[in-house]
Structure formats: structure tokens, C-alpha cells
Amino acid sequence: MTVSYVTTKELQEKREKYVPKGVSNGNLNIAHHAAGATITDIDQNEWIDFAGAIGTLNVGHSHPKVTEAVNKQVEKFLHPGFNVMMYEGYINLAEKLCKITPGSFEKQAILFNSGAEAVENAIKIARRYTGRQAVVSFVRGYHGRTNMTMSMTSKVKPYKFGFGPFAPEVYQAPFPYLYHKPSEMTEEAYIDHMIEEFKDFFIAVVAPETVACVVMEPVQGEGGFIIPPQKFVKAVSDFCKEHGIVFVADEIQTGFGRTGKLFAIEHFDVTPDLMTVSKSLAAGLPLSGVVGKSEILNVADPGELGGTYSGSPVACAAALAVIDIMEEENLPEKAESLGQKIEAKLLDLAERHDYVGDIRRLGAMVAVEIVDHRDSKRPDKKKTADIVKFANENGLLLLSAGLKGNVVRFLAPLVITDDELARGLAILEKAFDHNQI
């Protein structure tokens, strides 16, 4: 592997001069090559990847089957534009998505470029189908950085501050957070209370007759990996059915094996009308989609949906390989095993550090809440930032999350080896020990 003669410092200086500071960088080193769950920088330092490009690399970096499929497609053609001349990859991927997503009804799928674009188009489709305008998302939800998806997103800084005005007819409903439920309430009472709060929302804030769709992350991603109770999710789904509202599952971060099932919504015993997919769909290439009921998706007329680069044939080739890998290597099952190992380490750290609060996971979608003391549960954003900073300076790519910035989240590739995992967890342990009061 050829080593670059440009120095890290030179590239960092170029980045500072030519790239706006609005693009954040958790790690200031420069990637040179990557495989599995390890990235090697231009100085030949290795970094264990617990971030996975924010959940994009469930099959890992440079999986040989993905790179082979991409190379074969590149040799044929790059982009005739599906609107200009169709190609096999788009059609085959649409068929595959219809077959692997939940629901026994007739389905169709349409492809785009990014997660936010998929969410926007799910809303366009739901509005066209219902003839209604209002959109409901949830407190702590995250759906993207476009104007519409910013409007649906909860966290003001850094995602929304100074970027308004926002899209009208967008409302954020309450969402349960079991770790921070009132101490006097039982879990069952709290869940019932949140269901009533959700129903009351449609009395106090927006009438259900005006709502085109409710968009829910089965597990809130940027919000801090908040896992809702199954009873709540079923209540939301039932409410949508009762009132003719399109129920959209945003599986952009939760999909493709991350939670121990191919899609996270499968844990909740409900079937969405539409589902948005992206991130790990194409192993790092820009691709997204909306898949669901044909009667909803097929309502738009020709030319009303699409985009110049939507459904890139190269990205489609990668996605078809990803889906094969998911099945052949049984990655959802590996996700559960990986999640158990990360959880075990966090439980061990909790015994030594009283700032370790809630540890939660669904499959390998794992998070730990950092607090000033577990008795108080007060968020500690600074300590969280210190842990993430130490990790990123010592060989481990690590991310934070949460409305209050006090959650450490884990999105390691599902193909991570035992050796890579052990090395990463050792660095994580040092990061926690380093931040002991």
C-alpha cells in the first residue's frame, strides 16, 4: 500500500482553509485505507472504528464482495440516469427491498441519494396519497438537515439554530424515555401515560384529520438511542390506522441488521405503511429509498418523484451485495452477539464509575448515558465529550449523541473481529478510567 507523502499537518491546514468549519470532524487524522472495522491513516496509525461512518458500515469497510460488485459495475457504466434509460440494478434492488421489508401486502420501492431525501419523499408521497398537509415527528427525533427534515428534528444546536424559517405544518409529538420517567411512576403507568399524552397531542396541537403521516425512528438515533416500549409503538401504529394516517418507519440508522433483526421495526410487532432506508444500505455509497405499500407509492404521476442521481447504478450494485452479505453471514445474529459483548464491558465499567448511567441496547445499537452521578441522573455533557475526545486521540473512533450531548453510542461494523473488538474496548476502558473523578 503506497503511503502518501503529504503530511497530516499539511492536509489539516488545507482543510481549515478550504472547507467550512460548519462541517464537523470528530477525528482530525487523515484516512488512507480501511478494511473491516479498522482504518489506517496516512501516518500508518490504526484506528478501531466504533462509529461506522455514523451507522453506514454494517458490513464493514471495503467488504470484498461489495468492492467486487462495485468494480464490475464501474466497468459497465457509471450513470445513464434511470429517468433517461433504465438499468437492471435499480429494478433488481427495488424488488429485493420489497421482498425483505416487513409486510405481506403488495409493495413498491423508489430510490434516492440520502436519508434526508428519502424522508422528504416519504412525506411527499404521504401528502399526495392522503391529500393532507401536516407531518408529525417526535421529540428527540432526527431526520436530516434539509429544511423539511430540520423542521422534523428536535435538537436546536447544532442542527437548526440560525437556519430558519422552517417548514410549516410540522409537529413534534411526545416520545417515551424510560430512564427519565418520574421516579414515583411504575414503568407500566409511565407507558400508559405517554400513550395518553400522544393521543392528547392530537387534541391540543394538531387534528388527526389534517395529518398526512407520522414519522418514527424505531430507535431514536441522534436522540440518544432511546428505545420505545413495544406497547407505545403499537399504540402509535393503531392510532394511524384508525385515522387514515400513513405510518412511516425511519430505518435509516436502525436498518440492515443493526438491531439484531434486519429492520428494527420487526421488534415491535407492527408493520409500517412506508419505510425509509439509507446508510448501511450501500456500504458507504450514497443511496436511499422509500419502500412500502404499492397503493401509497404508486399514487404519484410520472415525473413527480425522482432526481438526477437517484438510484446510482454503482450504489445499487453495492446494495445488492450488502443484502447478500446480510443473509450469507447472518449479520443480524452477529449484531446481537456484538451488542452483548459491548454491554458486558459497559456493565463492568459501571461497577467502577458512578458517572455511568443508563446502559441500553437493541442488538448492536448500544448506548451509555453519562451523568454526574447515577443517583441524580443529571446529564454530564463535558465528561461525555472528554471520553469521546480521549478515544479519538488514542486509536478509537467514537461518537456521542443525545439531546443533551451526554450519550456515548456504538455503531461498530457488524463484521468486527474479536481482535478488533478487544482492542477497541481496551481503549474505551482507558477513556473511562482517564475521566474518573
TrEMBL record:
Presence of the UniProt keyword Calcium in the record: no
Gene Ontology molecular function terms on file: (S)-3-amino-2-methylpropionate transaminase activity; 4-aminobutyrate:2-oxoglutarate transaminase activity; identical protein binding; pyridoxal phosphate binding
SUPFAM superfamilies recorded: PLP-dependent transferases (SSF53383)
Domain of life: Bacteria
Isomerase is among the record's keywords: no
Family the entry assigns: Belongs to the class-III pyridoxal-phosphate-dependent aminotransferase family.
NCBIfam families referenced in this protein's UniProt entry, alphabetically: GABAtrnsam (TIGR00700), PRK06918.1 (NF005376)
Protein name: (S)-3-amino-2-methylpropionate transaminase
Organism: Scopulibacillus darangshiensis
